[in-house]
């Protein structure tokens, strides 16, 4: 099934072959095109419903073309970290960034576990430095890190000695006691467990009492400040002064300056501050970034990444190394459709075979110089227009990076790819670091535009990755076993919807901007099929419109007694049936091959409809409000809860009073109204062709897709759709019925 297409020593690039999948891809494409041709041929015999169906199906066909192109050449990388020591004399340094933004939505104990797991990875500790950005400016988070570093001093040697795989203590201690007979191990295990429990209880208590805590001494910087109005706070929590490889890596806490009238650009802004502060302090040529909930699940991850970063003959091959975003304690059968397993396996690997995976915001190793805007070396003349930095940096070019001389010196160093600067004493650099963490530092510079994490989209990750690909870099996906990092996926309806809405918003912001992939293909070095892959994801929000129209179509047809499908006896019906069946069989095949259940397939199908018609629509609305300058878009932080069990009803869809649930409820009520009118003989007399079995079956299918909403109509508390939402939706659907019946009557 797989053959190696190149075999440098540290990794293999393997082309995956899925002939059956390709056959399905093409069959579905051919059927879709036949459907469009059929619709066009018979358009004059039919009414509005036919035209609308044609428009929607054209959109679906376009999306399918993008999907097929993205999936067509799947590729996988295999890495061999055990060969690193033969090939590489000295492992390079890596700066690690962890972002956290809100101690309530992101409990410090989670952030702390992520940090501890990072401090304990299998890599020389003197080559690592871990920087934590706290946008919440929370003394609790700082306190937790201080305590965590003390614990990590015991934990890291314990993990390394006993070769523990899961180095996030909350996960390690929540699973069974490992079978290891040695009494020495048992003793140490019990001791570590006690130590961890003590750490956890200290952090929990601090959580509750944080307000009362006396903010003096080391905590004085946190007194009398507000979350969104404070100077920068930078603290070296732990310094590996002697540069010893089996001590702990450096640990630095950063809360950048925030002032009310200064835009802070959310996560992208935080990442740029991390980049600059780390540039002054350790300036490692590689940077790993993680969200606060993504703990390390494979202690060899840095070595795996190094195989890809150091092992390629041309560094252009690996501008960045992305690890897939996987989750722990996922709900059974993925009821919210947010675990993306099948996505990773087929679309994800497919894009790897083009110009490389998208940057996903977490679990990614970047070359520092790539973030500083450089182009791959062999891009040549064209590079002049693609990058702000070329040759030796002149005074003029240095404005790009802002006014700090020390930082500019470090950036020049990183761009020239020189060996590390001489080690520095971190506390001496704090003052200079404050300057680059200030909220005014970026004015008049290229940060967020030409260098660093890109501003202007709630999905700064996709935008930043796109910029890198546009400069001609490729990226690689690293998929070691066990999985590299694991994080939290939302476990309740409203949170999942808000996340989907943010993604749809951010993606559409990119599509509507001058940084969109079409322009990048025309004017820069984004490959054509990579552009199609980017379009595939960027149009998420826009897909809501044909999805909603198509979902309303069956109800519309039943109410107005018109049709958008051929009759059962017409041969054209076979196109529809064949399309439906091949799509279903293909979907099932993908899920079963990935080791998932039929139930998971169905849940994901259903949630794709629910997300598209609700969350994605709101994404479109917020982008239009932004374009009209009515309101800006915001990054609403996803709540991370670590609970693995809260009663028997896990996975049952939950609602709140947010308007985000109005479209779905309205679509459902419309289908129900249509049934009542259809079976109650209240349909209008037909104009050309009456509605038939096809429309009824489609309407039933829509109701099945919105089954969580059907249950929501009758559910109580968080399981029920709030009355206000039901009222709004009833009003909307009644107006719809009134409107279509009166216009249709007018035509008679
Ligand atoms: O003002 C902010 C807002 C967020 N964050 C951090 O950004 C990360 C991601 O936020 P989260 O709420 O977990 O968003 P998700 O939807 O789970 O994140 C996905 O989508 C984001 C883009 O929308 C990417 O940035 C993330 O890396 C990716 O995991 C977290 O560590 C936050 O602490 C900040 O540091 N500052
Ligand atoms: Mn997250």
What gross morphology would you assign? globular
Could you give the count of β-strands?
Answer: 14
The CATH superfamily title of the largest domain: Spore Coat Polysaccharide Biosynthesis Protein SpsA, Chain A
User: Regions with pLDDT < 50 over 5+ consecutive residues?
Assistant: 1-7
What is the annotated CATH architecture of the largest domain? Alpha-Beta Complex
CATH class of the largest domain: Alpha Beta
Q: Rg from C-alpha positions?
A: 28 Å
CATH topology of the largest domain: Spore Coat Polysaccharide Biosynthesis Protein SpsA, Chain A
Number of domains: 2
Structural class: alpha/beta
Q: In what order do the strands lie side by side in the largest sheet? A: 6-7-5-4-8-12-10-13
| Head-to-tail CA distance between termini | 61 Å
Q: What would the keywords be for this entry?
A:
single chain; 748 residues; alpha/beta; Spore Coat Polysaccharide Biosynthesis Protein SpsA, Chain A; 2 domains; eight-stranded mixed sheet; three-stranded antiparallel sheet; 26 helices; 9% strand; disordered N terminus; binds uridine-5'-diphosphate-glucose; binds manganese (II) ion
């Amino acid at each position: 099934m797989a053959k190696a297409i190149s075999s440098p020593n540290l990794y293999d690039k393997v082309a995956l072959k899925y002939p059956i999948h390709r056959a399905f891809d093409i069959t579905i494409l051919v059927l879709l095109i036949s459907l469009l041709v059929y619709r066009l041929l018979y358009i004059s015999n039919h009414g509005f419903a036919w035209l609308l169906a044609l428009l929607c199906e054209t959109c679906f066909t376009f999306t399918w073309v993008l999907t097929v192109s993205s999936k067509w050449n799947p590729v996988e990388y295999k890495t061999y970290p055990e060969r690193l020591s033969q090939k590489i004399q000295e492992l390079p340094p890596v700066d690690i960034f962890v972002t956290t933004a809100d101690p309530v939505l992101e409990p410090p104990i989670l952030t702390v576990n992520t940090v501890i797991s990072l401090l304990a990875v299998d890599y020389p500790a003197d080559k690592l430095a871990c920087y934590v950005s706290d946008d919440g400016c929370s003394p609790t988070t700082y306190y937790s890190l201080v305590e965590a570093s003390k614990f990590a001093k015991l934990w890291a040697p314990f993990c390394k000695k006993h070769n523990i795989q899961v180095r996030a203590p909350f996960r390690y201690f929540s699973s069974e006691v490992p079978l290891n007979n040695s009494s020495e191990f048992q003793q140490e295990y019990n001791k570590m467990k006690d130590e961890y429990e003590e750490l956890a209880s200290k952090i929990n208590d601090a959580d509750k009492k944080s307000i009362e805590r006396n903010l003096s001494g080391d905590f004085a910087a946190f007194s009398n400040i507000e979350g969104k109005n404070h100077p920068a706070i930078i603290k070296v929590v732990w310094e590996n002064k002697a540069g010893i490889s089996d001590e702990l890596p450096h640990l630095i806490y950063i809360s950048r300056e925030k002032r009310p009238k200064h835009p802070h650009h959310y996560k992208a802004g935080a990442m740029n501050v991390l980049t600059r502060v780390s540039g002054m302090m350790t300036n490692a040529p590689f940077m790993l970034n993680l969200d606060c909930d993504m703990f390390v699940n494979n202690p060899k991850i840095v070595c795996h990444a190094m195989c890809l970063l150091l092992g390629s003959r041309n560094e252009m091959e690996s501008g960045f190394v992305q690890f897939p975003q996987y989750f722990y304690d996922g709900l059974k059968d993925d009821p919210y459709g947010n675990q993306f397993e099948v996505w990773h396996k087929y679309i994800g690997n497919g894009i790897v075979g083009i110009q490389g995976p998208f940057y996903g915001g977490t679990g990614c190793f970047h070359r520092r110089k790539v973030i500083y805007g450089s182009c791959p070396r062999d891009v040549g003349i064209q590079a002049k227009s693609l990058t702000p930095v070329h040759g030796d940096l002149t005074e003029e070019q240095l404005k790009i990076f802002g006014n700090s001389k020390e930082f500019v010196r470090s950036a020049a160093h990183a761009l020239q790819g020189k060996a590390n600067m001489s080690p520095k004493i971190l506390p001496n650099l704090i003052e200079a670091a404050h300057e680059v963490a200030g909220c005014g530092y970026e004015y008049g510079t290229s940060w967020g535009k030409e260098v660093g994490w890109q501003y202007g989209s709630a999905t700064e990750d996709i935008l930043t990755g796109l910029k890198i690909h546009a400069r001609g870099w490729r990226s690689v996906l690293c998929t070691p076993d066990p999985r590299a990092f694991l994080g939290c996926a939302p476990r309740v309806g409203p949170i999942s919807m808000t996340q989907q809405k943010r993604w749809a918003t951010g993606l559409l912001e990119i599509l509507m901007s001058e940084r969109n992939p079409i322009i990048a293909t025309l004017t820069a070095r984004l490959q054509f099929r990579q552009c199609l892959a980017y379009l595939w994801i960027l149009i998420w929000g826009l897909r809501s419109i044909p999805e909603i129209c198509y979902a309303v179509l069956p109800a519309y047809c039943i109410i107005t007694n018109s049709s958008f499908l051929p009759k059962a006896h017409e041969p054209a019906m076979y196109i529809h049936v064949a399309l439906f069946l091949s799509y279903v069989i293909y979907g099932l095949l993908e899920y079963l091959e990935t080791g998932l259940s039929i139930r998971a397939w169905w849940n994901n199908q259903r949630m794709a409809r629910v997300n598209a018609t609700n969350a994605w629509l709101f994404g479109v609305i917020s982008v239009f409000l932004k374009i009209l300058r009515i309101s800006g878009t915001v990054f609403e932080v996803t709540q991370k809860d670590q609970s693995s069990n809260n009663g028997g009803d896990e996975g049952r869809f939950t609602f709140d009073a947010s308007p985000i649930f109005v479209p779905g409820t309205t679509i459902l009520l419309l289908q129900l109204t249509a049934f009542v009118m259809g079976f109650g003989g209240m349909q209008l007399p037909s104009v050309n062709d009456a509605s038939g079995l096809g429309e009824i079956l489609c309407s039933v299918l829509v109701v099945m897709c919105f089954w969580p909403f059907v249950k929501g109509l009758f559910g109580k508390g968080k399981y029920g759709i709030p009355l206000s939402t039901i009222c709004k939706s009833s009003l909307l659907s009644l107006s719809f019925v009134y409107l279509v019946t009166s216009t249709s009557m007018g035509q008679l």
